[in-house]
TrEMBL record:
This is Inositol 2-dehydrogenase/D-chiro-inositol 3-dehydrogenase. InterPro entries: Gfo/Idh/MocA-like_OxRdtase_N, Gfo/Idh/MocA_oxidrdct_glycsds, GFO_IDH_MocA-like_dom, NAD(P)-bd_dom_sf. Pfam families: GFO_IDH_MocA, GFO_IDH_MocA_C3. Gene3D superfamilies: Dihydrodipicolinate Reductase, domain 2, NAD(P)-binding Rossmann-like Domain. It comes from the Bacteria. Residues 35-162 form the Gfo/Idh/MocA-like oxidoreductase N-terminal domain. SUPFAM superfamilies: Glyceraldehyde-3-phosphate dehydrogenase-like, C-terminal domain, NAD(P)-binding Rossmann-fold domains. Residues 177-314 form the GFO/IDH/MocA-like oxidoreductase domain. The lineage of its organism: Bacteria, Pseudomonadati, Verrucomicrobiota, Verrucomicrobiia, Verrucomicrobiales. The gene is iolG_3.
Length: 423
């Protein structure tokens, strides 16, 4: 099945660790060398490989895959400091749009997914079908067809007793965990609203149309400039600020929202892509709670990434050094939990669970937070009040699964609120 074929899995919200026999149990799980495969060798993929190699003494980077050979060899060079832990000869260096499947078939035990998110559902499905443990970087999809595919893969992972670990990294930051645990425990009273920001510069250089080489097909050009196209990146609210969207979900204890109303647009000169560079989203929840997300990617402007969770007894802010302030502005709490590298904590817990024969399956939760980002994006693009129920009825599918490097492919135009139709 490809990711457009799904079996109607419900949009249940949930996450957790299930005690279940690991596929490694009975095979010397505590001693077996785990072979790691990296799919997507950019900055985040290389970072994930770094953390995976640091998380366990008996692991080896066994295979690598990317659509561009230069990206792969550059990543391999950056990882060479791990010495014998990196064993990726030329025959296990796979290049091209079909490289992911070759890597999965190369004998790896654990797959790290670090490609642009438009590929995530397809790659996750292939790895789970092959019985591999998977770390999947955020977000999990760029459309609702992809979200449904991720849910289906999560169900399949349960049957195959393999783990899915997510890349919503703030959920692994000890101080931020402390903050949200106290909020959920009611220490500061009921949550009444949230304002989260992700105000930043573009995370990658957005290439102008003049940078396109004459010999590049549409697909090759879009892959070189993937962050600027919705079918590969999902746009900045989903590709980058989904971290803040995810923390809104966290503040609300992963409850489903009612609806969203949003605005957004593009302030840059027309650059050949089809994404916005800023969004402002209001998520409506039960009991009159509204949660706002402000996102932008502007150069030379004020930057901040702050969660402000307003509760009945205090206003709580994080990350950084999470703190709570009473209505007079007096600090009444500050986290004393020791800070740790959240990316490393993610992989430490992932590999420790594999060694212990425990199955981590965060697939439903991953899909839910991705869908929350899609709700905000599509509310902005359409200019409509979009409900959670309407979102889950959508058959939107932006990312073709069968693209070839030489193909022609025309992206959708830049959305115009009031004219754009969400399907």
């Amino acid at each position: 099945m490809d990711r457009r074929q799904f079996s109607g899995i419900t949009a249940a919200v949930g996450a957790g660790v299930m005690a279940a026999p690991s596929i490694l149990r009975g095979q010397g799980a505590n001693n077996k060398e785990l072979k790691i495969g990296l799919i997507g060798c950019g900055g985040r993929g290389t970072g994930a490989a770094t953390q995976a190699l640091s998380a366990d003494k008996n692991v080896k980077l066994w295979a690598m895959a990317d659509v561009f050979e230069g990206q792969l060899t550059g990543s391999l060079g950056r990882l060479s400091g791990f010495g014998a832990k990196v064993d990726v000869p030329k025959e296990r260096q796979f290049v091209g749009l079909d490289a992911f499947q070759k890597l999965i078939e190369s004998g790896v035990d654990v797959v790290l997914l670090g490609t642009p998110p438009g590929f995530r559902p397809q790659h996750l499905r292939a790895a789970i079908e092959a019985g591999k443990h998977v770390f999947a970087e955020k977000p999990m999809a760029v459309d609702m067809a992809g979200v449904r595919s991720v849910l289906e893969s999560a169900e399949l992972a349960k049957k195959k007793n393999v783990s899915i670990q997510h890349g919503y990294c703030w959920r692994f930051a000890p101080q931020v965990r402390d903050m949200y645990t106290r909020i959920h425990d009611g220490e500061f009273g009921r949550v009444t609203s949230v304002y989260g920001t992700y105000l930043a510069s573009p995370p990658k250089v957005i290439m102008p149309p003049s940078a396109r080489k004459a010999e590049w097909s549409d697909v090759e050009w879009q892959l070189h400039n993937w962050i600027n196209f919705d079918h590969f990146s999902g746009g900045p609210l989903l590709e980058q600020a989904v971290h803040t969207v995810d923390k809104v979900a966290w503040a609300m204890n992963d409850a489903a929202p009612i609806a969203a109303v949003a605005t957004g647009g593009l302030t840059r000169d027309q650059d050949g892509g089809n994404i916005y560079d800023h969004y402002s989203v209001a998520y409506e929840y039960a009991d009159g709670v509204f949660c706002h997300v402000g996102q932008r990617q502007f150069r030379g402007a004020h930057n901040e990434t702050i969660d402000r969770v307003f509760c009945e007894k205090a206003n709580v802010t994080g990350p950084g050094r999470p703190s709570a302030f009473d209505p007079s502005g007096k600090r009444i709490w500050m986290s004393k939990v020791k800070g740790q590298n959240m990316y490393q904590v993610c992989h430490n817990e992932f590999f420790a669970a594999i060694r212990e024969g425990k199955i981590i399956n965060t697939g439903e939760y991953m899909a839910n937070s991705t869908a929350l980002g899609l709700l905000g994006r599509e509310a902005a693009h359409s200019g409509k009040r979009l409900t959670w129920e309407q979102l889950w009825k959508s058959e939107q599918d932006l990312a073709p699964d069968d693209l070839k490097m030489g193909d022609s492919f025309t992206p959708a135009p830049i959305p115009q609120p009031g004219k754009y139709k969400f399907v």
